[in-house]
């Protein structure tokens, strides 16, 4: 059954590319036509809907997918960038279904609103692998597997680090004023990191979370929200920024206001993702701690697909390894960091 789906998909791809090339003689379309696989190549066709390109983390995640699901590795990759819009993702997934791809992989922008399109994929007999963020559906049989990060644990790790950092310091028993730069509203990463950190904060009566506002995981929004915090609050002790890109924006604003962070600075700065640029700032002491969020998910996704191809069962939930980086251990990973 799977072979017939591949042949059908490749035939459809060839016809689409041929029609486009006939209508338009542009170089890009010619390259697209050239890249359409022949039926006898027997490639596994993967449809990937990426939520966007909002951060360095996302770029590294996309590069991982492109490198892994290459023709040389036995795959034909159909890739779509949703540009931060759920309606674009739903449209792309429906396109993959109509082309009868072998597998659909996507990172959902938000958790809700996926039941109908995933039901369509299930009815078409196409396994769906969800990566990074999660979905909130009534029937979890609508997807085959999820692979990604334990966002709630990341939040807890950040809270435990702050707990240890404050222990024994002069202001550890005084009120600790905290502001949070949250990621995209209703995204799995934002929900998990918020819940995890708040769980630890609830154990400390003197931890005062002044504000939690959406900065959309982007540098520009991080810069904007950080300025609002500075204008609103005279005494900020800790900044929790839910990804490195927002952290970079916050650092720009803090510098413009003559404020310092990190080791020996005015404010303790906690970040998430563990990108190389941010880890350089951990090394220099500008960022106190960076909780890793590993974007290199494609090799693990390929492992799941390989098992499915061989008729093996796979785990529903799959976590990848993550670490917490400070000045004490950051040098061990900097040289080999690819993102």
Describe this structure in words.
The protein contains 12 helices and 12 strands. The chain has helices at 2-23, 27-35, 56-68, 86-98, 115-123, 151-166, 188-201, 219-232, 244-256, 276-284, 298-309, 331-334; strands at residues 44-50, 75-81, 103-106, 128-132, 145-148, 176-182, 207-214, 238-241, 268-273, 289-292, 317-319, 324-325. Residues 14-34 have low confidence and may be disordered. The two termini are 39 Å apart.
Record the SSE blueprint:
Elements: H1 2-23, H2 27-35, E1 44-50, H3 56-68, E2 75-81, H4 86-98, E3 103-106, H5 115-123, E4 128-132, E5 145-148, H6 151-166, E6 176-182, H7 188-201, E7 207-214, H8 219-232, E8 238-241, H9 244-256, E9 268-273, H10 276-284, E10 289-292, H11 298-309, E11 317-319, E12 324-325, H12 331-334
Parallel strand pairs: 1-2, 1-3, 3-4, 4-5, 5-11, 6-7, 6-8, 8-9, 9-10
Antiparallel strand pairs: 10-12
Helix pairs in contact: 1-2, 6-7, 8-9
Distance between the termini: 39 Å
Q: Give the H and E element order.
A: HHEHEHEHEEHEHEHEHEHEHEEH
How do the strands of the widest beta sheet line up side by side? 2-1-3-4-5-11
Radius of gyration, in Å, reads 22 Å
What share of the residues does DSSP label as strand, in percent?
A: 15-25%
The total strand number stands at 12
Which regions contain 5 or more consecutive residues with pLDDT less than 50?
14-34
């Amino acid at each position: 059954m799977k072979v017939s789906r591949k042949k059908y998909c490749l035939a459809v791809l060839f016809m689409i590319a041929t029609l486009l090339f006939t209508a338009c003689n542009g170089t890009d379309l010619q390259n697209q036509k050239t890249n359409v696989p022949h039926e006898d190549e027997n490639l596994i066709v993967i449809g990937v809907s990426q939520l966007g390109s909002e951060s360095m983390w996302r770029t590294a995640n996309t590069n991982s997918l492109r490198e892994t699901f290459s023709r040389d590795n036995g795959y034909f990759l159909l890739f779509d960038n949703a540009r931060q819009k759920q309606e674009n993702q739903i449209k792309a997934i429906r396109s993959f279904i109509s082309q009868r791809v072998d597998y659909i992989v996507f990172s959902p922008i938000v958790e809700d609103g996926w039941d109908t399109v995933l039901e369509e994929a299930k009815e078409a007999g196409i396994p769906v692998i969800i990566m990074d963020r999660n979905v909130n559906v009534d029937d979890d049989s609508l997807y085959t597997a999820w692979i990604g990060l334990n966002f709630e644990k990341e939040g807890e790790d950040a809270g435990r680090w702050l707990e240890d950092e404050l222990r024994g310091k002069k202001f550890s028993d005084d009120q600790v004023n905290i502001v949070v730069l949250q990621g995209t509203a209703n995204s799995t990463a934002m929900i998990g990191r918020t819940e995890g950190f708040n769980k630890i904060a609830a154990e400390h009566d003197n931890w005062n979370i002044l504000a939690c506002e959406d900065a959309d995981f982007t540098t520009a929004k991080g810069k904007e929200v950080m300025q609002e915090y500075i204008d609103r609050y005279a005494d900020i002790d800790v900044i929790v920024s839910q990804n490195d890109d927002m952290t970079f924006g916050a650092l720009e604003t803090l510098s413009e206001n003559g404020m310092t962070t990190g080791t020996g600075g005015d404010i303790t700065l906690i970040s998430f993702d563990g990108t190389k640029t941010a880890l350089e700032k951990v090394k220099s002491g500008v960022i106190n701690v960076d909780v890793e969020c590993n974007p290199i998910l494609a090799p693990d996704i390929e492992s799941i697909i390989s098992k499915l191809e061989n008729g093996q069962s796979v785990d529903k939930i799959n976590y990848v390894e993550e670490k917490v980086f400070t000045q004490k251990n950051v040098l061990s990973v900097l040289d080999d960091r690819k993102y």
